[in-house]
Structure formats: C-alpha cells, structure tokens
C-alpha cells in the first residue's frame, strides 16, 4: 500500500498551489482532475509571474527604445533561456510558436517553401520520390501536416504500425526508413497509449540515411521519462522537437519548436512579416537569423514568462521526482483497472517504457457513457479518439476513455477512478 | 448530478433494444455521418413512397447510448409519416436539444423523444443525440422526392 508520505513528491503541499484542484463540480463533488494530457492546471506561481510581467513590464519586445521595452525583451529572452536549458539546448535553438501544432506546421511549410527558397535551403526540399515516415500512433498534429506536405509536393507518406501490446513495430525499421526518406516524425510518448517510444534506434537509422528527425514531445517534456528525468533534446540527438506550454503547467497560446542551430540557420521561414526581417525593400526582403526568423509579428510575451515560471516550478520539484511519482500512479491505475472484469487497457499493460496516461475500454459501456458516470462523480477524464483516430482504428476500438495523471494527482484519485469505472458497470448493468 | 436525469429508462431501453436497426434494401437515399470529436458514426438509409411518406429508415452504426437510443427513437417518430411531418418533428427535437434544458418538450410531437430533455443540459452530448437525425435529413436530401422538401 502506497501512502502519500512515501511518495517522492509531497502532493498535499503542492496541491495548495493549484486553486482549481480544491473546487467542487456536479453538486459538490470534489474535483478529480485526470485530464492533464489534454491540458494541465496552472499553479499560482505561473499566474503570479504573468501578472507581475503585465503589471510592471508589459510592452512589445524587440522594438522601441524605452525602458519597458528593454525589460520586456529581457523577460522574453530570459524565458527562452530558461526553457532552452530545461530541454538541454541553446536559447538560439528555441522558437516560440502558438502551440506544438504550429511548430510541426512551421517545419512542414518551411519544407514546401524550400523548393523556391534558394540553394542553402535545398536540403529541406521534398518532392516526388521522397518519403516521409510517421507512425500509426501519432496525434493528428504530427500526422496531418505531413500528409498535407506530401500532397503539396508529391512526396509519399509511410508509417510504422503498432503492435498488439501498444508498442511501435520496429521490425521493418530498415525497409521503412531508406535513402528516399527525408523526414522521420514520431511521438516521444503516445498521448493515448502512454507508450514511450525508443528514440535512439529511430534517430540512428534516420541519420544513417540523411533524414531529419522531428520529435513530438508534447507528452514527454511535461512529465519527464521515468529513470531518466527531464527530456534532453540534445542528448536524444533529434533535429526538431515540439511541445506545448499548457500541458506543462504553463499558459495556453505558447508552444516551442526546437531546431538544431545549423538547420534553423538554413531553413526558410514559414510565416513572414514584421520582426522576422533583416532588410525590407519594395523589390524584396532578407530575413533575420533564427530564432527571430521564425517569430513573425509581435510575439506572446506574458505567456513566455509564464511558461518559464512553469519550468522553474517543475525544476523546483525535480523532473526525476515528477516522473517517479507519475510512475507510481500509472502502476496503481494499471493494477486497479486490470482487476476489473470487462475492462481492457489499450496500450502497454505494464509500466516498462510507459508514462502515466492510461486508455481503456469497458465491455458493454460506450466510453462516452463511462465518462458521463465518472463526471457525475466529479472525475474528469478524456473520451473519444484523442486526436489519434488512425491509432484507434488500428486498435479496433471506436473510442477510449483516457485518464492522464500529473504531479498533482494523488493515489486516492486513482482509486476514485477505479471505483468510478465499477460504478459505470453497475449503472449500465454489465460486469459482475 | 443525477445521472438518471440524463439516462432516462426510455433511453436505456432503446439503447439495449434498438428499433429498426440494420441496413435494408431497397432504399432511395443513404447518408454516412460521423461525430469527429468522438468517432461515433452512423450509416442510414431512407425509403420514400411516391406519395412522400417515409416508408422505411434503416441504419447501422456505433456510438454511445445517447446516439444509439436517439436514432432508435427517431425511426419510431418518422417511419409512416409524411416528409413534412418528419421535418416538423425533427425541428421540435432539434429545438429541444439546443435549448440548454430551457425548452419544454411537447409529448404529442416528440413521444419517447421527450426523454432526451435531460441530455440537453449537457452541451457535450447534444451532438450525440442529433447524429442520427442529421443522417436522416441528409439521406432524405439525397432522394428525388426529399430533395425538394428538406
């Protein structure tokens, strides 16, 4: 029996920072928030940092010579440095985007633009005969932009399939990733299955054939990896990576695209306009060096400051402890749900190489109906295909219920989930 | 929250024992509808008589209790009725579902459909309740007689 005291994170103390976690829902039920995979809650420290910025330094960054503009620019660039260091890269390799989806699109559109952008961009150009490799477990955000890139350029999309136990099937690694491959894009951790994918063999094979690796790190950067702690893009050796602020205690409206310096330096822009230029004449323009080249327009500033505060918060707890705590929750959830007759986990049934996202189906009760019963008990989960429709088809389920945990969840909340699922079975007259 | 206010007995009955289920021939119009947020789907066919009566509605699909029960109730409400009557019923049901629980349903028009009044309080589930109706309207529009009416 795990008690709160023996956990690597003092959850009780930490929950006091998240006002929303003490509210009630649906006629006075304490909120049990198990939907952090969709969006996480924000601690007071993040809100305070945003407010402090807005109340003291708010102004447009990288323009104007007044004191506020200087302070805002320092705060914005300071935030970039904090976030870069958190994922093991240099500040110049961090591009702020609206969210992770925009980050993937930025790379995909830059690659289409490369066809007409001159010789230094040539390595990004794709066309007929070229291939882009993804996986069947991708979130739509790391699938649809690549489908569209193929459609625009005549390149071909290929993908790794998923095994019955929710792992990537790498048996065809060498035949799927070939000399024709230009991009290999995959999720570090599946937003449905919880599977943590093996980055090393994919990077090794991709680089062997000269392909670029794009990592969707939306579900790994916020949580770290059990046994490894914080995610380090430099150590992983990926070429690009994306993640979102709102999934890691930060604000919405800000995401990060990491790109290796020499790649960002050679890559043509996606969005163009103010802030991203070097020289503008009526006849044509040249562009600023990265990361500014990829940040057209007045950027989001309080959001960047808020995200840096979220990183400070996570660092304060320690990513090794965050991931260890979540590992304990995943273990408890997998054990508790597996014990219920008629419940099937969609994804790895054990905790090896998996995070604290647990998707499941209940025989005889549609996921929507399961979640409605859980909601009536105050338990917030996600239901549907979680923006991973092809994965659900591959798993032969129309939809799943997904519980996703974070550092502020308690073991007792896992128990509430398990009891809630039993209640759903009782209500719909199935199970025991 | 009272779960029973959403899951009325009538709804659970239709869910467990759906009416008119299965795809039948012949038919005059067919529609495939999907709820892109949850993946629920329905394929629905209509057969319309020369005098404009909805002769048959048949369907296959998968989805939650609300979408399945609602489609089942719909077949009861439209089969054997004129297209005009079916459209009036559909309008009444749509109004009920989009009323956030503020619309008083008319049992004379909606019959078992009034059981969905509780669902209207849950915006996330309204789409579920309307899925089959959307398929019916679309299938009807694909028939030669219905195309003029809807």
Write the layout of secondary structure elements.
The complex is a heterodimer of chains A (432) and B (150).
Chain A: H1 11-15, E1 24-25, E2 29-30, E3 32-33, H2 44-56, H3 67-86, E4 94-97, H4 100-113, E5 131-135, H5 144-153, E6 156-160, H6 173-176, E7 181-187, H7 199-208, E8 212-216, H8 233-236, E9 240-244, E10 255-259, H9 261-266, E11 277-281, E12 284-287, H10 302-317, H11 319-338, E13 343-346, E14 357-362, H12 367-376, E15 379-380, E16 382-384, H13 389-394, E17 400-404, H14 411-427
Parallel strand pairs in A: 3-15, 5-6, 5-7, 7-8, 8-9
Antiparallel strand pairs in A: 1-2, 4-10, 9-10, 11-12, 13-14, 14-17, 16-17
Helix pairs in contact in A: 2-10, 3-10, 4-5, 11-14, 12-14
Chain B: H1 3-6, H2 9-16, E1 29-34, E2 41-48, E3 54-62, H3 65-78, H4 83-97, H5 107-110, H6 123-141, H7 146-149
Antiparallel strand pairs in B: 1-2, 2-3
Helix pairs in contact in B: 2-3, 3-6, 4-6
Record keyword descriptors for this entry.
heterodimer, A: 432 residues, alpha/beta, Aspartate Aminotransferase, domain 1, Aspartate Aminotransferase, domain 2, 2 domains, seven-stranded mixed sheet, four-stranded antiparallel sheet, 16% strand, disordered N terminus, B: 150 residues, alpha+beta, Sufe protein. Chain: A, 3 strands, globular, PyrdxlP-dep_Trfase_major (chain A), pyridoxal phosphate (chain A), Cysteine desulfurase (chain A), PyrdxlP-dep_Trfase_small (chain A), Cys_dSase_SufS (chain A)
């Amino acid at each position: 029996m795990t008690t709160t005291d023996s956990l690597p994170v003092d959850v009780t103390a930490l929950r006091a920072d998240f006002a929303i976690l003490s509210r009630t829902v649906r006629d006075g039920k304490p909120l049990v928030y198990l939907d952090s995979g969709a969006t996480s809650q924000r601690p007071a420290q993040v809100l305070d940092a945003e407010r402090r910025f807005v109340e003291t330094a708010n102004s447009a960054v990288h323009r104007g010579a007044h004191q506020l503009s200087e302070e805002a620019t320092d705060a914005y660039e300071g935030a970039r440095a904090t976030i870069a260091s958190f994922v093991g890269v240099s500040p110049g390799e961090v591009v702020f985007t609206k969210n992770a989806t925009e980050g993937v699109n930025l790379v995909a559109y830059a690659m289409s633009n490369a066809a007409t952008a001159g010789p230094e961009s040539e390595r990004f150009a794709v066309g007929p005969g070229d291939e882009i490799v993804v996986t069947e477990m991708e979130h739509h955000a790391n699938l649809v932009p690549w489908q569209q890139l193929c459609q625009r350029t005549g390149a071909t999309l290929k993908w790794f399939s998923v095994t019955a136990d929710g792992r990537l099937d790498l048996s065809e690694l060498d035949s799927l990733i070939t000399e024709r491959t230009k991009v290999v894009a995959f999720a570090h951790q599946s937003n449905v299955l919880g599977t943590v994918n093996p980055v090393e063999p994919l990077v090794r094979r991709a680089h062997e054939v000269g392909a670029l690796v794009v990592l969707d790190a939306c579900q790994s950067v916020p949580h770290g990896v059990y046994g490894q702690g914080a995610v380090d893009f430099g150590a992983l050796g990926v070429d690009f990576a994306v993640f979102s602020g709102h999934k890691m205690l930060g604000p919405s409206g800000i995401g990060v695209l990491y790109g290796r310096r020499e790649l960002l330096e050679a890559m043509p822009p996606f969005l163009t306009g103010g802030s991203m230029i070097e020289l503008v004449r009526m006849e044509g323009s040249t562009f600023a060096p990265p990361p500014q080249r990829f940040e057209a327009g007045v950027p989001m500033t309080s959001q960047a400051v808020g995200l840096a505060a979220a990183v400070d918060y996570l660092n304060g707890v320690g990513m090794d402890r965050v991931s260890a705590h979540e590992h304990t929750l995943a273990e408890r959830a997998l054990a508790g749900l597996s014990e219920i007759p008629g419940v099937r986990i969609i994804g790895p049934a054990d905790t090896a190489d998996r995070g604290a996202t647990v998707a499941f189906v209940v025989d005889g009760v549609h996921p929507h109906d399961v979640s409605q019963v859980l909601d009536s008990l105050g338990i917030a989960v996600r239901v549907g295909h979680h923006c991973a429709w092809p994965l659900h088809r591959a798993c032969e389920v129309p939809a799943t219920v997904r519980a996703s945990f974070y550092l502020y969840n308690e073991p007792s909340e896992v128990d509430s989930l398990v009891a809630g699922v039993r209640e759903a079975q009782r209500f719909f007259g199935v199970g025991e | 929250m009272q779960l029973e206010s959403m899951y009325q007995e009538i709804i659970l009955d239709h869910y467990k024992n759906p009416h008119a289920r299965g795809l039948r021939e012949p038919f005059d119009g067919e529609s495939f509808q999907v709820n892109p947020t949850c993946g629920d789907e329905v394929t629905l066919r209509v057969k319309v008589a020369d005098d404009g009566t909805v002769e048959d509605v048949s369907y296959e699909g998968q989805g939650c209790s609300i979408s399945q029960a609602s489609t089942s109730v719909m077949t009861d409400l439209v089969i054997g009725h004129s297209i005009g009557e079916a459209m009036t019923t559909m309008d009444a049901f749509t109004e009920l579902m989009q009323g956030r629980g503020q619309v008083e349903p008319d049992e004379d028009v909606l019959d078992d459909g009034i059981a969905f009044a509780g669902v209207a309080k849950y915006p996330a589930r309204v789409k579920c309740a309307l899925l089959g109706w959307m398929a019916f309207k679309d299938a009807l529009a694909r028939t030669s007689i219905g195309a003029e009416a809807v």
